[in-house]
C-alpha cells in the first residue's frame, strides 16, 4: 500500500461530511480503497451490444498485481472467440510517469506497444478505450467541483476530474463515488469537443476476503453511437502468488 496501513485505518474511520473534504481527497480515498490486494485473478465475459440489440460475446482471463507502492500490472488474455484466442493486453500503470501497454495478436505473431497517442482508441472493438480498460491512479487527474448527489438511492459525492495526459481522449470526466464504501459507481466521459461521449456504470459489488470490494458488472454506453459493452466479472481469487515474470512481455507470448 502507498500509505502506512495503520494511518489508513485511522483516516478511513473518520466520517467525511460536505464541505469538510476536497474533490482530490475523495478521489484519493476511493483509489486507496482499491489498493492492498497484492494480486488477483478473475474471469471476464465481454459482451458487445449493437444499437439494434445484437450481441457478441468474448471470454477472457485477467490477472493483476501490485508491483510496489505506485505501480499496477495487468494481463488480459482472450480465450474466445476463436479468432481472438491467445490475444493479450499487458498494462503497466504508474501513479506518476507514463503508463505502458503492449498488445499481442497471434495472427501477426508480434507484440505491439500501444503508443501514447493511441490509448484513446477502442480496445478490441469494445466501447472501452485502452485508457479505460484498467483503473488509473488518482494522481493521473486534477480535480474540481465536489458536490453531493444520489445515485440509485445511494448518497454519493460527485466530482469532476481532468486527465493530466495530453493525449487522453477526454476533456473531462464526471465521477460518482458513494459515501459509504467510496466506490466509483458512475463516470461520464466528455470528448475533446466537451460533448458527452460515454457513460460508465459499475454494479453488483461484492466484498472478498473481508476487505476487497469489486463489481460484478460494468457497462459502458456510447452516447453518440448507441453501442454498448458490458463486462461480467466472476471467480475472483486474491493473493494467488503472482510474480513479476507473470507480467513481462514474454508472458504475453505464453498466454495460451
CATH topology: outer membrane lipoprotein receptor (LolB), chain A
Strand arrangement, largest sheet? 6-5-4-3-2-1-15-14-11-10-9-8-7
Mean pLDDT: 91
Described by strand count, sense and barrel closure, the largest sheet is: 13 strands, antiparallel
How helix-rich are the residues, as a percent range? under 10%
The global form is: globular
The succession of helices and strands, N to C, reads HHEEEEEEEEEEEEEEEH
Total tally of structural domains: 1
Please tell me about this protein's structure.
The protein is mostly beta strands. The protein has one domain: Lipoprotein localisation LolA/LolB/LppX (outer membrane lipoprotein receptor (LolB), chain A, Clam), CATH 2.50.20.10. It contains 3 helices and 15 strands. It has a 13-stranded antiparallel β-sheet, covered by helices on one side. The longest helix is centred in the first third of the chain and has 12 residues. The chain starts with a helix and ends with a helix. The N terminus is likely disordered.
Q: What does this entry show, briefly?
A:
With 256 residues, the chain is mainly beta. It is built from three helices and 15 strands.
Which key terms come to mind for this protein?
mainly beta; outer membrane lipoprotein receptor (LolB), chain A; two-stranded antiparallel sheet; single chain; 13-stranded antiparallel sheet; 256 residues
Topology:
Layout: H1 5-12, H2 23-34, E1 39-49, E2 55-66, E3 71-80, E4 88-94, E5 100-105, E6 110-113, E7 141-151, E8 154-163, E9 170-178, E10 184-191, E11 196-203, E12 206-208, E13 212-214, E14 217-222, E15 228-238, H3 249-252
